[in-house]
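Inverse folding, one chain.
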């Protein structure tokens, strides 16, 4: 097999937009408990699609999480979500016994799929240390400020003197750039008003 052949055999990354779109067809636009269920004639098809998406995405998330250090919080979270996905895939589909059971099962699958998509997206941003680029940039900035004599200089009242430090400015700029590259899906509602203007 040539180098070209191995490249073409590599699995294409999952299309998260398509996976999330399938989940939203079951959950509705607000993912709330009062969302209207999908039409009964579509339910079996949607359940099959959701199961297929989970069967493809779960091992990918496990593979990516398995590369992280053992102490990685992101890795543990992703593995727990992948295990929940496997539990849902093993659970019996009771849609043939009662339509409401099928709707509940489809919604459970859709919620796990959404969570798995978020983990996949996050794991794709992590470096070999298990940290995101913005976490790495922040740690560099914090380590510098903690050890730099200029950054630690205090005034007569004991407060930080705020002396200019070119290295600190550079590291803070790198941190801001890393934060700016966060995807809206990851930042979402966790972004506080103060962070938006920072």
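Residues assigned per position:
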């Amino acid at each position: 097999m040539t180098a070209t052949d191995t490249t073409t055999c590599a699995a294409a990354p999952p299309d998260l937009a398509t996976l999330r779109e399938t989940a939203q067809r079951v959950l509705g636009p607000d993912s709330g408990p009062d969302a209207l269920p999908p039409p009964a004639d579509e339910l079996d098809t949607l359940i099959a699609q959701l199961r297929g998406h989970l069967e493809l995405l779960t091992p990918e998330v496990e593979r990516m999480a398995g590369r992280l250090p053992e102490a990685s919080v992101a890795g543990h979270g992703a593995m727990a979500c992948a295990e929940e996905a496997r539990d849902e895939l093993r659970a019996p589909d009771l849609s043939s016994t009662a339509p409401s059971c099928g709707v509940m099962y489809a919604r459970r699958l859709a919620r796990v799929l959404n969570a798995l998509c978020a983990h996949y997206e996050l794991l794709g941003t992590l470096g070999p240390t298990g940290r995101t680029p913005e976490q790495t940039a922040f740690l560099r900035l914090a380590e510098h400020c903690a050890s730099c004599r200029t950054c630690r200089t205090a005034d007569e009242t004991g407060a930080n003197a705020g002396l200019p430090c070119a290295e600190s400015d550079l590291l803070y700029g790198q941190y801001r750039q890393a934060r700016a590259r966060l995807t809206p899906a990851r930042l979402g509602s966790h972004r506080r008003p103060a962070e938006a203007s920072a």
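The radius of gyration is 23 Å. DSSP finds ten helices and no strands in the chain.
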